[in-house]
Amino acid sequence: MSMTQPLNYQTALAYVSKAKDIEEGRPYGKNTRILYDVDDGMPFVRIQYHATTIVEYYHDHTRYYNGGWHSVTTKDRLNKLLPKHMRLSQKNFVWYLHINKSVHELPDDFTITISSDGDVDIE
Question: pTM here?
Fold first, then answer.
């Protein structure tokens, strides 16, 4: 599985399930790991870039984060993992989310939540 392929809960879980130690996760690109986790009894799979979680896959939604980082590499990782009809751009230190033809300015430390039915929430 390559970093150029967007994931969902099922494919990310299948990938991390092949790790030698599921709690340590499995490498997924340079300085990037996929890990299995549980929060309040709800299992999820997360992608961590260095020490920052940038994506969390749940069975009914996905969350994307920049963790307050505005690096080119963080943006690149997120763009590879976002659905094909979405992408991030940056101009003058401001990040934008493009969804089809609409553009949304993002806060410095953002969370993008996409439900399983495609609804998008930006915080």
Answer: 0.91
